[in-house]
Amino acid sequence: MRFNEKELLYLSRQPSEKAAELGMKGPKKGDVPKKRLVKLVVNFLFYFKTDEEEPIGALLLEQCKIQQEDGSMFSIIFFDESERKYQFECDTLDQCQEWVESLTRASYEYMRKSLIFYRSEIQRLTGRDPLEQYGISEEARFQICSQRT
């Protein structure tokens, strides 16, 4: 996927939903965990050297699996590249669980499923489609049975 570097840099400077210094190990063989400032902004996970203002990388949190591992570690694995695994080490188990939850909720697909769920609940309770007033109730991306690729 292609990104505009200036836009990513701008996004990395926005207020974060979550940020902390974590141990981070990249997908390359022989990588060792390094302390990184990790910052969640919308559905991007930016990582920085602890003494620098510009990110050294970013992960788009789409089409990936976020899972807690042993102890206070979690990983991010991308569906189309299962060998591309990033591991993060937190200071505590609670911190790790908070990160896993926050990262899981950050994806567009999670937000889409939540919108569909709440839309159907409101419709069930009120008998009215809450998106109808905005003229978007028929859009495929908001349909329960739509298939996304």
Shape estimate: elongated
> Radius of gyration over alpha carbons?
18 Å
What do the pLDDT scores average to? 89
Question: In whole angstroms, how far apart are the ends?
Answer: 14 Å
Largest sheet: 7 strands, antiparallel
Got a strand count?
A: 7
Structural class of the helix and strand makeup? alpha+beta
Low-confidence stretches: none
Per DSSP, the total helix count is: 3
Fraction of residues in helix = 25-40%
Task: Summarize the helix and strand pattern as letters.
Answer: HEEEEEEEHH
Beta fraction? 25-35%
Order of the strands making up the biggest sheet: 4-3-2-1-7-6-5
Brief synopsis:
The chain has about 150 residues and is of the alpha+beta class.
Notes on the protein architecture:
- With 149 residues, the chain is α+β, with helices and mostly antiparallel strands.
- It has helices at 5-12, 93-105, 108-126; strands at 18-25, 34-41, 44-49, 57-60, 64-68, 73-78, 81-89.
- 15% of the residues are buried.
Topology overview:
Elements: H1 5-12, E1 18-25, E2 34-41, E3 44-49, E4 57-60, E5 64-68, E6 73-78, E7 81-89, H2 93-105, H3 108-126
Antiparallel strand pairs: 1-2, 1-7, 2-3, 3-4, 5-6, 6-7
Search tags:
single chain; 149 residues; alpha+beta; 3 helices; elongated
